[in-house]
Design brief:
The chain is α+β, with helices and mostly antiparallel strands. The chain contains 20 helices and 30 strands. The strands form seven sheets. An eight-stranded mixed sheet has the order 3-5-1-12-9-10-11-20, sandwiched between helices. The N and C termini lie far apart (67 Å). Dioxothiomolybdenum(VI) ion binds next to loops.
Length: 773
């Protein structure tokens, strides 16, 4: 098939984005009579509600009504996997920020003033914020799970070296530019339309129906695009949408709620912090013979997606290495923090950090670069993952290409020379290979759908289950249509994600939206194309299989015919042949048996390797990421601009998580890093000075759309390398320091590790240091 769409096509939203014309939730024109909702949330992390006094608040000007748990007609329940999360607290509060009441007012200002007048009396109960403490007290969300391979017990005896340790990785605020929000509108016969900034329109629809005791066919959810989701709106967009719908249900009025940034930061969950233990055993040739890990996931106060996130931690606990003997156990620990949730990588990064820490610890002890161990253990095709799937591995190809393309030996020499010449600045370098499984780990969620209409003027309209959130999925879907129909992209429009047009969607997540919905779109288009060809054959009196449609023209046996796309569409319609198709796609061959913890859960894996170099300032503790040089496995990229954007964005977000973004809850479970003044995210000054990405172009058929590979999440994990590069730089300054594996490596922590109180630096060096000041 001829490609009429360039693989460097710009994101179709770029024109309206730069003009400020793209429509987000807050840009939807409001209907007359629209009311504004705002939640009153718990000031305490755990306690029993003794009394809730709304009298002062309800008397405030402009206040229409205040809703509480008693006003919920159906189930007061929004838990997606486990029903353990109330929409509005009824008798107890389980985290600071848990919604207790909903004020609805004629203006946002009036609502916000009224919220301050609500008086709640809570009898405090003990607060747990630490996952290990929760585990020790038996506070688990689900039963622990263990992935095992080989025979770990006897493997230790064969190891020449064994290392043990612990790690901490902190959470991460999603910081989507568009905060959570929704707008609900009453429709006839009691139905409700909800505009929601959600990755999961069906989740909003399903949960709204059960909370309001309505049928799903009475709830329409519509999503044009999100100003970012990053996993934070996979499950956690539902509460706000349903709160609006609850008010609409009672008041028969349009109701809007767009959270302020501090509300959003306070009330929503984040990436899961993990506390973990590892034990790693190596033979003389640096082969990892045995690896044992225990993960304590800080789930927060309710399950949300934590069990699935925990599962992905186990899936990715050996990163891109083959380890013959593995035992990995994970606990999902219930604490009194806002329920933590999906975040780009979905538990995978947390698992991968631990084995990288284990390798770093071994390398330190053996006095070798970690890369010697990393490279000796990369997965080969046919190697088995601890969950039973055999790898189709590109790990070695990516690693070798990285070493060669970026001249790793020269880079190492540069770092060494620099460190020999400089006392107060040190460089560090680390390699970071990645391996990420593509497919929802819950097999049944791997479904995509697409509805394609060709109108009688020849233009094409497409709806799918995918939600556009900046990742460019609509551009890719448009490319699929343009490619199958060989049609000018300007004649194709991708419409909002709407539960009346596309039913029972999986959330746009697991990096699989373009794969699943793109494939469904391909199937729908091929079906319509087939019908067009049959009609063309009949019109031209030739067999249908001699027909080709290229760039808007119709050919028979390679010869231009009298028909073009527009004529053919009209003739197809005139013959009463359908110009519409709804298609469904599910990747073949995936399965998983949770009883055995074995199966073939992923359609395929994405691989890659990054080299990260950093420079630290040993006086101030500040640092810069000099470069991130990557060889990434894109399969055959469908869109190089979009894919490079995904890589760059993922890398910067990963570096943010590992180096500067520091979520702080105090012992009472109150978020201290509750605004952008106390929570530092990467900005233009802190992004790497250089990001180079080389595509490992593989032509293999891999079950994704047009042999591309999913790209949304995997690059985030290159950011883990920044942590280890910083660590190496610290070691260049202070070789004897015993550095805990405690991410993020903030400038404060880095400074403390350069001059730990316990290390006695020799006089001469101290003299030089004083002089240099
Ligand atoms: N890119 C942008 N710009 N905004 C986002 O919110 N989310 C990420 C990733 N890239 C995100 C993004 C996450 S968490 C996922 S799972 C994928 O996009 C989802 O989209 P895809 O399945 O189309 O890759
Ligand atoms: N990834 C992302 N989101 C998910 C998954 C997954 O594997 N499973 C359920 N939601
Ligand atoms: Mo992404 S964390 O799967 O939304």
């Amino acid at each position: 098939m001829k490609i009429c769409v360039p693989t460097n096509m710009k994101n179709i939203d770029s024109y309206t984005h730069v003009r400020g014309e793209s429509v987000y939730l807050d840009d939807i024109p409001l209907l007359k009579g629209t009311l504004y909702a705002i939640a009153f949330d718990s000031p305490l992390a755990h306690g029993k509600i003794i009394s809730l006094d709304l009298s002062e608040a309800i008397a405030m000007p402009g206040v229409v009504r205040i809703f509480t748990a008693k006003d919920i007609p159906g189930e007061n329940q929004i838990g997606g996997i486990i029903p353990d999360e109330e929409l509005l607290a009824s008798t107890h509060v389980h985290f600071c920020g848990m919604p207790v009441a909903l004020v609805v007012a004629e203006s946002e200002e009036a609502g916000r003033l009224a919220v301050k007048k609500i008086n709640i009396n809570i009898e405090p109960l003990p607060v747990i914020t630490d996952p290990r403490e929760a585990q020790a007290k038996g506070e688990l969300i689900v039963a622990p799970r263990t992935f095992q391979m080989g025979d770990i017990a006897s493997a230790w005896a064969q190891c020449d070296q064994i290392f043990e340790g612990s790690t901490e990785t902190n959470g991460q605020e999603h910081l989507y530019i568009e905060t959570q929000g929704a707008y609900a509108i009453p429709m006839e016969n009691g139905a409700i339309r909800i505009y929601s900034s959600t990755q999961g329109p069906t989740a909003v629809q399903r949960t709204a129906a059960s909370v309001l005791h309505m049928s799903m066919h009475e709830i329409e959810v519509d999503t044009t695009r999100l100003g970012g989701g990053f996993g934070g709106k996979e499950d956690q967009a539902s509460a706000w949408a349903i709160l609006c719908a609850l008010a609409t249900y009672h008041l028969k009025k349009p109701v809007k709620y767009a959270l302020h940034r501090m509300e959003d930061m306070r009330m929503t969950g984040k990436r899961h912090p993990y506390s973990s233990d590892f034990k790693i055993g190596l033979d003389k040739n640096m082969k990892i013979l045995a690896y044992e890990a225990t993960f304590y996931q800080n789930a927060g106060a309710a399950a949300d997606l934590s069990p699935a996130v925990m599962e992905r931690t186990l899936f990715h606990c050996t990163n891109s290495y083959f380890v013959p003997n593995v035992k990995a156990t994970a606990y999902s620990c219930r604490t009194h923090l806002p329920p933590n949730t999906a975040f780009r990588g979905f538990g995978g990064p947390q698992g991968m950090f631990v084995i990288e820490a284990a390798i770093a610890k071994a390398a330190d002890a053996l006095g070798i670069p970690a890369s010697d161990i990393q490279s000796a253990n990369l997965l080969r095709t046919g190697d088995e993952f601890p969950y039973g799937q055999a790898a189709e591995s590109e790990a070695n190809e990516c690693w070798k290409k990285t070493e060669e393309l970026y001249n790793i030996n020269a880079l190492r020499r540069e770092v060494e020379d620099f460190n020999n010449k400089n006392k107060l600045h040190k460089k560090g370098l680390a390699l970071m290979p990645i391996c990420f499984g593509i497919s929802f780990t819950k097999t049944r969620m791997n479904q995509g759908r697409s509805l394609v209409h060709v109108y009688t003027d020849g233009s094409v309209s497409v709806s799918t289950g995918a939600v556009e959130m900046g990742q460019g999925v609509n551009t890719k879907i448009l490319q699929v249509v343009a490619r199958v129909f060989s049609l000018d992209p300007n004649r194709i429009k991708i419409h909002s994600t709407n539960t009346y047009r596309i039913a029972n969607t999986s959330p746009t997540a697991a990096s699989a939206a373009a794969d699943l919905n793109g494939k469904a779109t391909e199937i729908a288009c091929l079906e319509i194309l087939n019908r067009l060809k049959i009609v063309a054959g009949e019109e031209l009196n030739v067999p249908a299989d001699t027909i080709e449609i290229k760039e808007g023209k119709v050919y028979t046996n390679g010869q231009l015919s009298i028909l073009n796309w527009d004529d053919l569409v009209i003739r197809t319609f005139t013959r009463r042949v359908s110009l519409s198709e709804h298609a469904h796609y599910t990747p073949p061959g995936i399965h998983f048996d949770p009883a055995k913890e074995k199966g073939h859960p992923f359609a395929y894996h994405v691989y890659g390797t990054a080299i990260i170099t950093v420079t630290i300032d040993c006086l101030r503790g500040i640092y810069e990421v000099d470069s991130v040089k990557v060889v990434h496995d894109f399969g055959t990229s469908m869109n190089t601009i979009v894919d490079l954007g995904q890589c760059e964005g993922g890398i910067v977000q990963g570096i943010g998580w590992m180096t500067m973004e520091e979520i702080v809850y105090d012992k009472e479970g109150k978020l201290r890093s509750n605004a952008l003044s106390t929570y530092k995210v990467p900005d233009i000054y802190s992004v790497p000075k250089e990001i180079t990405i080389h595509a490992l172009d593989t032509k293999k058929d891999n079950l994704a759309v047009f042999r591309s590979k999913a790209v949304g999440e995997p690059p985030l994990m290159y950011g883990i390398g920044a942590y280890f590069a910083l660590r190496n730089a610290v070691k260049a300054f202070n070789p004897t320091v015993d550095l805990p594996f405690d991410a993020p490596m903030t400038p404060e922590k880095l400074l403390m590790s350069l001059y730990p109180p316990s290390t006695k630096r020799n006089k001469k060096e101290q003299g030089e240091f004083t002089q240099a000041q």
